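Quick one, tokens below. Sequence please?
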């Protein structure tokens, strides 16, 4: 369990698209498909594709449930801790400034985000 480098962005970019990359990992769909889906939904909702409301609705529409991360120690509970405590399942974790895809205790990202603090997360309901 741990960090696995992945960048589903077809051009290898990783600036401002962490939500798209995280959802791409969690749904095992191409970055382009997620980007187009989020742009269409953002147009309908009249909000930005990276807004919590848009990508949250997208995840819920794709079988995820939202949960608030409320560990006993909010400053010392990291993404790495979350993965150790949740070795099974598919998640998209939000840290407030970043989003990370997690599958079966491994977190997939362009850099090791294990020290980030989870604020809320989405879990694929078929995994519960």
């Amino acid at each position: 369990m741990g960090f696995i480098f992945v960048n589903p962005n077809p051009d290898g970019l990783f600036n401002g698209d962490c939500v798209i990359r995280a959802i791409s990992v969690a749904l095992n769909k191409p970055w382009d498909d997620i980007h187009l889906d989020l742009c269409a939904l953002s147009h309908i909702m009249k909000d930005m594709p990276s807004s919590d409301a848009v990508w949250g609705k997208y995840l819920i529409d794709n079988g995820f449930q939202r949960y608030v991360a409320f560990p006993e120690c909010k400053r010392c509970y990291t993404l790495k801790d979350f993965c150790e405590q949740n070795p099974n399942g598919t998640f998209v974790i939000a840290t407030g400034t970043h989003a990370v895809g997690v599958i079966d205790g491994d977190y997939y990202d362009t850099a090791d985000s294990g020290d980030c603090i989870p604020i809320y997360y989405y879990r694929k309901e078929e995994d519960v």
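The first helix runs from residue 18 to 27. DSSP finds four helices and six strands in the chain.
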